[in-house]
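To close the section, here is one more complete example, presented without commentary so you can practise reading it yourself. The ligand is zinc ion.
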Amino acid sequence: MYTYPFKLEKLINEISKLPGIGPKMAERTAIYIFKKGQPAADALSEALGGIKDIKFCDICGNISAAGTCAVCSDEKRDKGAICVVESPEDVITIEHTGKHSGVYHVLYGLINPLNNILPDNLKIRQLLKRSEKTENIREIILAINHTVEGDATSLYIADAVKTANPDIKITRLAKGLPTGSDIKYADEITLGQAILERKEI
Ligand SMILES: [Zn+2]
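Output:
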């Protein structure tokens, strides 16, 4: 039985490990890369090699080119207001609205006991550390989707932060975003309005 050359099979196998890519799509992608030729493959390979130079910000957990990200190291950003988001994509979306002048905290997921994602699996402990009184945080803005997991995560964080430091105001994006909709896909105007009209919880 004919199979692809070993090196192509290897490429198909690696591509198929990516999220949302099934075996057929992996096969098609690998053949596409082969057909594009060596320069295209080298460019892809070089981009993949660059991953080693990308880091997690040691303050907010966002993706960064250095130990501290561009937002956290920006003197002009309001360090007293932390916008908490599920993923790095949400940071980019919120930055596009231009309505948040503070800093961020990236959780990398939401609490979901059915999938075994518990508070300790997210970067919540780091957020609580940032919420300590000595850090002078005034407000934590929960820019978290209005889903079952989003609600559970928001309530958990609100309780934990209030326990750590009752002086911090905790708000959540409420209006404007339809229930169950994803912040990543919200348009800038709607999301910007939701930031401005955030509600204290
Ligand atoms: Zn940062």
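Once you have examined the tokens, check your reading against these statements. The mean pLDDT is 91. Residues 78-200 form a domain with the Dna Topoisomerase Vi A Subunit; Chain: A, domain 2 fold (CATH 3.40.1360.10).
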